[in-house]
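Supplementary Methods S3. Complex input for the zinc ion-bound model.
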Amino acid sequence: MDDRPIWEMSSGDWIQDDEQNRFFILNRESGEEGNQSGLDIIVGAKWHHDNKANCGGFFPPEFDHCPFCGCELAVGDHNSDIWVPPYGDGSGLRKVAGRIDMDAIPVRRERTRIWVDIDEQVFSLPRIHGDYEFIVAPLGTKSPVLVAFDRASGVVDYFSPAQKKWIPLAPSPARRVGTCELPNWSWSAAFLRGKAGFAVPTREGPVWLAIDWRQGTYAPESGQGDCIGGVATLQNQIFIPVLTDSSVTIQSFDFSAFKWKQVEDCKRDVLQDFSEAQRFSVPIGDEGRGVIYWIGKDGLITFDLPHSNCMWRPWETGAFPCRAVPELGPPYQDQIGNFWQICYNDHDDAFRYYKLNGNEGDREDVDGGCFSSGVSCFSKSYDLWDRPWAKLDTKRQDVAKMIRTPLLCLDEESKTSVTVGFASGSTLPLLDIIKDRENTYPAVLRIESPSDLPVELRMPKAFNIHTPWELRLFIYQDHLFVYSSEEAVCYRWRLK
Ligand SMILES: [Zn+2]
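Predicted complex, serialized as structure tokens:
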């Protein structure tokens, strides 16, 4: 018979094991010992540093000292801003959830060179081979939890700062889902604050991965149809477009029934076959209007929640319509909040922007294509950051020697952004870079703004990649992480 004392506390019921000098948390429902890992994040447990005594592990957060040896227990600071993959704050633009202050970044200077050294502590991936997306959010945990989701296998791991390691969640009922063929510009995940789990598009339809932290397991709840775009959140709900019987519908996860339900049929004002090959972008959320946009090559889906309406419309209706280039980044948002999508027309070899909440007449012609973070737009010139359709003053423009792509805006006001310098010396047109899967190019990283000198993000070796946007970024506990799945490396730099 188990005669070990049990401490009933607000953080949970804890068993005191005097033989092992350990505490174990009980699952209140089953009365059994469940998952004992990552309790710093899950319930805010304190950590016992190694010392000569034989005690260690997690202790109830209500304790200040170890009852076995009397040493002080460590309190971790596990605060972190959220990170919604792939881009940051979950709006569909490439921007962080909380502003990063440039002055706080620990830079080093030597004459005109400014850089940030790479963090020396090795940050290992859950496994060498994987195609990871990283989520940072309070997914039903005491503190925001860093979760690695492997898009290739559906495996889910979470990180314990106290234990300094990844902990795998076990699939229950022993079934993994997650494999998904959506391209990088199309795949996105979503979570809702306080809900234990997150939603992803998969080959088996939209999936809510429900996490049971007490047991250390997760279970997939699948919907119907083929996922054709990323998952969005709007007004504390989750939405995703799916293809069923050649029509597009919007599905949402109903938490009271705990299943996916269809909320809207997508209407079309022009006949268009939605083939399986049709893909839509990471969703763009317009919280103010209550609207979500999914960008497709031929047209866009607009889901209007307040008016219960979903509509597909083409970019152009002429004989030679242009096509959107979502690979170049999210649509540019202007000063008054309108979004503009860059499109390309093969027929007259021209780029133009279309307003998402407008019609075919709301367009701006431009000289050339630009990369976009949604907050700023640029390829080689600073002049285009704020005005993507501005005419370039070739006398004064600051033209970089390499292609510069914005990966993440750290501060909207100063437009400070993490950029990747790519294909140095190359004269490849933008559209060729997108199509080119043969060559790889060295890619270096910087923090740039129009008003300051660029800050180099130093690393042992440049990334060697096909396209700039293959790099996946995330921010966790004041560090910037940059990950390449193809090269299976993840570097990090301190931002504070
Ligand atoms: Zn102790």
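The first helix runs from residue 39 to 42. The mean pLDDT is 90.
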